[in-house]
Task: structure prediction
Amino acid sequence: MTEAEVTNIVIAGLGGQGVVKASDILSQAAFAASLDVKKSEIHGMSQRGGSVSSDVRFGEKVLSPMIPRGSADFLVVMEETQVTPNIHHLKTGGVLITPEHIPYILESENEEEAKRLQRTLNVAMIGVLSCYIDQIRTEHWLAAIENNVPPTYFELNRKIFLLAQAVEQVMARVASAAHKNGGMSIPVRS
Amino acid sequence: MAELAPQLLSGNEAIALASLDAGVTLGVGYPGTPSTEILENLSRIGGPAQWAPNEKVALEVGIGVAYAGGRALVTMKHVGINVAADPLFTVAYTGVSGALVLISADDPGMHSSQNEQDNRRYAVAAGVPMIEPSDSQEAYDFMREAFELSELFNITVLFRLTTRVCHSKSIVRSRPKAPAVPKYERDVKGRVMIPGYARPAHKRMREKLKQIADSKLMDRLTSEYGDPKSRKGIITSGVTFQHVIESSPDARILKLGLTYPLPLERVRDFVNSVDSCLVIEEGDPCLEEAFKLVDIPVLGKPEEFRFGELTVDRVQQIISGDYREAPPTPPGKPPKLCARCPHRVAFSILSRLDCIVAGDIGCYTLGVMAPFEAMDTCVCMGASIGVGLGLRHALPEEEARRVVSVIGDSTFAHTGVNGLVDMAYNPPSTGHLVLILDNETTAMTGTQEHPGTGRKLDHSPTRRMDFEAVCKAVGVDQVHTLDPTEDVQAYEKLIKDSLDSGELVVIIARKPCILTERRIAKAQAEAEAAECLAEQPND
Ligand SMILES: Cc1ncc(C[n+]2csc(CCOP(=O)(O)OP(=O)(O)O)c2C)c(N)n1
Result:
């Protein structure tokens, strides 16, 4: 029951961005990976465009459903303005994940297509996060995504998830190589 | 007992599943965060669930089901119990033949409520047992216990959830289904509460509570955790237990699942076996007061921890005695009316006309925010009409003429009608104007149906409450219906003229909520397709 065995993740954004859906995917994937899981969020006003955040905790045994202040290992923020109101969740040395991590992949010159892609932002962010979670295998992630998006959108979400995952892996490798050479900052901030 | 495959469920989902597995005859309630998803889920998994127009009716229907020998689940948010308090206090006397479990979903910290009342007080005041789970597994297990307790002792059980139990997900293992429901039995002396029958009924109720305090159930719902050798004791209940065990695994922890009646002797033994014992509870100091009343020497929390939710951090503060407040966090973005929300028009007009707005509860309460700032009062559901009338009665004429009551459609069906009856019965000398913002749904709590939508909980069609006819029937002089987005100038003129007319006027501004557009369009297409098929000749 030591704290160290629990992974704490806060997902934050604005109503309508799919924060709760992202935390459902994350918690179901962790559950499928045979971990103990708890997640907690505030419903209600989320559809009215206000700030939304969700706490997900998993490990061998999870107690409180809420993440203590300053002890999130990861803070996933879907919108730049929501970094400031949520940064206090992150522990020192924790990883902040923002849409900056996935440049270009949700963009398109076609307006309709761009809108469609924007709606997968939450799954893209989960894709980035997945690079850091060793306990959960890709099959668990994909099963959880399938469970949470309409069947006609699954293929698109699957692609976006895998693409975001690949981009993050490359970026992290580039960053760590650059770091070894003493240049360039790491895109993973704390 | 055989266990079924585990599932990841919210507290509300676990309650729905437990009710289904307990053989619930009917689930009935009124929407209210954080309770709403219980009945929605019950319906989704194939259980019988329906919305009542308000919490009082919901409880009364539940009482009837339980008098008939059935098993009733009644759900509402904490303030709903205020509305249902009248039947609650007397069904506590009559008891039930089947089972009656009443859910009170409390909202410490007021994430989406107008107050943070602690409904543990209701169990004591009404004289009904209260059960409190600390996570989804307990929500499931204790709910099964609640149905059994209710049926065994023929008593109403109050089941208290809090936001963090309702809306947190954790792993649940369910159990096999309960056996079928017993039959109806007539019991006039037990059910008809004239004073002569009510006096012995009150004594029977107190006797039952005593028996429950001594029952085996008490042992099943009371558990000890932590280090059995520790000299530091903590007594707690509900989700607070989870925060306590996380922040203080080395203490001895007594968790109470039944918080009324209390296992006082067990608590006394526990307190005597440690050097000092702290009671850590969210909200009012209910447990602390109950223990101190019978001279059990416990320590409580400082007054400032009565406000808001407890968390691991705040529990740590209570334990360590370091009460310094954490640095404030920058505010997030507040909610606001949707960009295309039809309610917006009304508040622009009321703001321009400088009205005194007796408001009500719903999405439209956001009319209080900039840029509108067009709301002067908001007390409880349905209050807009009564408060508006009171303002009209008391204010000098010039000001009285600026008063308007603004109410939503679900709220009108809930308890607004009562105020309207008074408006016709005791009309203010300046008349009055009621604006019903009818978006044909209960938007605030997630777009639930209500009697005025003509659709049931599962969105299937039923009779529709005719607001216009109701207004006329109670004696309102003028009833107008309009689409608020169609002709804003005409809308504004009608409001302006009505405020000042000296008559009783109701304006029904009807335009569906943008959040339900797609669902309604889909249902309509399906209905039309079905009609088409039905019209096809058989051969
Ligand atoms: C007694 C009580 N029950 C339930 C609630 C939760 N609640 C708040 S507003 C509301 C109804 C809102 O519906 P409506 O009046 O149609 O307005 P809308 O949100 O659609 O604009 C409900 C159910 C409450 N605050 N008080």
In short: Residues B 30-32, 55, 77, 79-80, 83, 361-364, 381, 408-411, 439, 441-445 surround thiamine diphosphate (CB under 6 Å). The beta strands of chain A are 7-14, 36-41, 51-59, 72-77, 90-97.
